[in-house]
Design brief:
The structure is a homodimer. Chain A has about 300 residues and is mostly helical. Chain A is about 70% helix and about 0% strand. The first copy, chain A, has a single domain, classed as Orthogonal Bundle (Farnesyl Diphosphate Synthase), CATH 1.10.600.
Chain lengths: ~300, ~300
């Protein structure tokens, strides 16, 4: 990674962290414990991969960073809510996230349930509350896309597939279909919402970004599976080896480590190829794709 | 109740039932079990009080029923998601709802969690997906209002207060503040979203409706407490006497049955007074307020 890119990542992580800190309700405001638990679950950690993708895509639309803040923040709030709910005992029952106790361990299950619910509401409230598109009708389209990506045909539906797949033998296309919903849909939304800010992008750029998002999102998941199998808990900041222990099918359990790594490289090449029509303007997205396949946690 | 009003209620309940049935994902679509559980939790029952209030308020804006369908449906989906999550073991742990097993009893806790999450996403997706306001910027305001009413400063925050209040001695103003969030916020949203359809209403009408919504929403909750204390489980369709058994403060535990009934009557009078500036055009809302305080389940 170039220094310029590393600086950009650091600056934009700090930027979205600040934005989230300002827009999450304060602990001094009632109900204080709920707000404290919301802030605990969102702030202070995370790769902020989805916001970074939104900022990078927003550059293609010529959007201001202030416009992209809103969509980046909304997508990150949806992601954060999903982690809180997925960690709960009735789901993945995980106790560690970003190196700290998960929300339900720290605040109790009932509060964790309400934290997730409230973060989802807040995402839509904030995205509806500031005009980020030159045309308000385009912003309604972004809100609809965020809803689709989050719901039964997107992220939540992917989690339902995931639960149903425990101890079952999925084929590779089935595993891909599950992950396109579970993680792919929201990564795609981050990119397309970023590109939808301001005046938006033309149809060719939109199609290229959609293609890129699909490959990069899947690469992200394949690498997640590789890291879950390889890394230790301390590096990962969450319980390592948990998928295998839970009997969940992963790219590593289906393909083995070496072929899973090869698949990630193939998807990476596909992601770069998708960006070719965009030339130099897509440099940031290329760097983020490299970052996704090279990350260690 | 006049026959005309009874017919109107019946027709609009059927109307929103049909709309919801069409807009909830089908069981034939993957993930089928999640969709089945979503449909189970939303369809086939419920007073549909919030949709009825939205339709009645929509008449004041001269909105078409098709426009109001969308906001009525979105509000009802938020309400339905809250029931599914509130019934879960880590919250109120209730097994009966609308005379049937609750969602988590029928489908398991993990699915119930995802049902609530997906219904909330669907509410925003659908409200963003059809233009119901003459000006798209007004529709963004409606989406923001729905988000506020649902989240930490609205319904979910009210539920957090409710959990914290178990076995504690709330004052009457504290109880009122809790219910203004827990049930009041979404009832207010139903009315203001209905009135926001089409060209919307003028500032005087908006203020009158806001005042009406506050009184009617609180009356609704007071009557809920009275019915919970008086009625049997069969009539109620949910476990009767549960609040008292759970040590939750209610209007009946604070005031006694007789004074709680008087308070409901006072709130009803206040609701009617708020509608005075609107004259004959608010007849439907008056009838709904009477319906709220006279209901038996």
């Amino acid at each position: 990674m170039t220094t310029e890119f590393t600086d950009w990542v650091r600056a934009h992580r700090a930027r979205i962290e600040d934005w989230l800190a300002v827009h999450l309700p304060g602990q001094d405001l009632l109900p204080g414990r709920l707000h404290e638990a919301m802030r605990y679950s969102v702030l202070g950690g995370g790769k902020r991969m989805r916001p970074l993708l939104a900022y990078a895509a927003g550059e293609l639309a010529g959007a201001t960073a202030a416009q992209v803040d809103v969509v980046a923040g909304a997508v990150e709030l949806i992601h954060a809510y999903s982690l809180v709910h997925d960690d709960m005992p009735c789901m993945d029952n995980d106790v560690l996230r970003r190196g700290r106790p998960t929300c339900h361990v720290q605040f109790g299950e009932a509060t964790a349930l309400l934290v997730g619910d409230s973060l989802q509401s807040l995402a839509f409230e904030l995205l509806a509350g500031t005009l980020v598109c030159d045309d308000a009708r385009d912003q309604l389209r972004l809100l609809r896309l965020l809803g689709e990506a989050s719901g039964a045909q997107g992220m939540a539906g992917g989690q339902a597939f995931d639960l149903a797949s425990v101890q079952s033998a999925l084929t590779l296309p089935e595993l891909e279909s599950m992950h396109q919903r579970k993680t792919g849909a929201l990564i795609r939304a981050a990119i397309l919402l970023g590109a939808g800010c301001g005046k938006g992008v033309d149809a060719t750029t939109h199609a290229a970004l959609d293609h890129f998002a699909k490959a990069a999102g899947l690469a992200f998941q394949v690498i997640d599976d590789v890291l879950d199998a390889e890394a230790d808990t301390a590096t990962l900041g969450k319980t390592a080896g948990k998928d295998a222990a839970d009997g969940k099918p992963t790219y590593v359990s289906l393909l083995g480590l070496r072929d899973a790594r090869s698949l990630a490289q193939e998807l990476y090449s596909g992601a770069l190829a998708a960006l070719e029509p965009l030339g130099n303007s897509a440099g940031r997205l290329r760097a983020l794709a490299a970052f996704i396949v090279e990350r260690r946690h």
